[in-house]
Design goal:
With 304 residues, the chain is α/β, with parallel strands linked by helices. The chain has three domains: 93 residues, Winged helix-like DNA-binding domain superfamily/Winged helix DNA-binding domain (Arc Repressor Mutant, subunit A), CATH 1.10.10; 99 residues, Periplasmic binding protein-like II (D-Maltodextrin-Binding Protein, domain 2, 3-Layer(aba) Sandwich); 108 residues, D-Maltodextrin-Binding Protein, domain 2, CATH 3.40.190.290. The protein is 42% helix and 23% strand. The strands form three sheets. Strands 3, 4, 5, 6, 9, 10 and 11 form a seven-stranded mixed beta sheet that branches. The protein has a two-stranded antiparallel sheet with strand order 1-2.
Length: 304
């Protein structure tokens, strides 16, 4: 093992490009270098790691099992390094640099535009980088440091090492196809959907929303008859818009144009018909992250 070779950023970037291109020639061209030095760099990297990272063949290369695992960790190392540099620059220069913000599907249409406008006006030197992921992915990346701030609907995976703030509370509504018998109603009781087919949130990806739907229906006197499962709200709306079934979704979704879907308010005041949007951060979040969070919270409070 060549212990004198460090895992420099350049070396990790070279490895990732080769893993993506699966060809040393194309990778070298993309990196703006010749092929022999790139091959030598990868060979040195394999000596440092102590494992073969690529299987070589006449048509190119393919990451080994060890290479695939190393590619995931190498990307995480690069992301952490970028985040650390950006954070240090923000602190040193007073709100300059970039903040990485993660969000789950559809939240970007409802809550992020006002925050981005306010940030552009009040913190013109700050660049906000948006990244879409699942709730679990956003939470894990905020915890791991590759995201600075996250917006999620499902808090089931939150632990004490993260700080969460409720920035909005929404009612749950019935989502039915446009040609459904109840589509024109101004409000219904949840029990009126007892005989309908449902698309259900995936309990492994959206455990809080999945449990909320089950409990709300149980309180209304029935168990939802699930014929499909979706791991995000876009998937729920796709099934409903296709006219195949009904579901439950946050009322804020009515602000979006979803073809073929009608959202109907549900009568009743049970707490299981309320859902929240959470902002999450690490306890050591810097001033720029706190400012962005304060903006998002204040904008919702003022109805903007």
């Amino acid at each position: 093992m060549d212990s004198d070779i460090n895992l420099s950023r350049r070396l990790l970037e070279q490895f990732l490009v080769v893993a993506q291109e699966k060809h040393f020639g194309r990778a070298a061209e993309r990196l703006g270098m010749s092929q022999p030095p790139l091959s030598q760099s990868i060979q040195r990297l394999e000596r440092v790691v102590g494992a073969r990272l690529f299987d070589r063949g006449p048509g190119g290369v393919r990451p080994t099992a060890a290479g695939k695992v190393f590619a995931t960790d190498a990307q995480r190392l690069l992301d952490l390094q970028t985040a650390a540099v950006a954070r240090a620059r923000r602190v040193a220069s007073g709100m300059e640099g970039g903040v990485r913000v993660g969000y789950v599907s559809l939240l970007s249409h409802l809550y992020l535009p006002p925050m981005l406008r306010a940030a552009a006006e009040q913190l013109p030197g700050l660049r906000v980088h948006l990244q879409h992921d699942s709730s679990a992915g956003v939470i894990d990346q905020v915890r791991g440091g590759t995201l600075d701030l996250g917006f999620v609907r499902d808090p089931a995976r939150l632990t004490d090492d993260l700080i969460s703030t409720v920035i909005a509370t929404e009612r749950i509504a019935a989502a039915v196809p446009r040609d459904h018998r109840l589509a024109g109603a101004t409000g219904i009781d949840l029990a009126e959907l007892a005989d309908e087919d449902f698309v259900l949130p995936d309990p492994t990806v959206l455990p809080a929303l999945a449990e909320q739907l089950q409990v709300a229906c149980r309180e209304a006197g029935f168990a939802p008859r699930g014929i499909a499962i979706a791991d995000d709200l876009s998937g729920l709306f796709s099934y409903v818009g296709a006219g195949l079934c009904v579901s439950l979704a946050p009322e804020g979704m009515r602000e979006l144009t979803v073809d073929g879907v009608c959202l109907i308010p549900l009568r009743g005041r049970t707490g299981y018909l309320d859902t929240a949007v959470y902002a999450i951060r690490r306890p050591d979040a810097d001033a720029a992250v706190i400012r962005l969070l304060d903006m998002a919270t204040a904008l919702h409070a003022t109805g903007r």
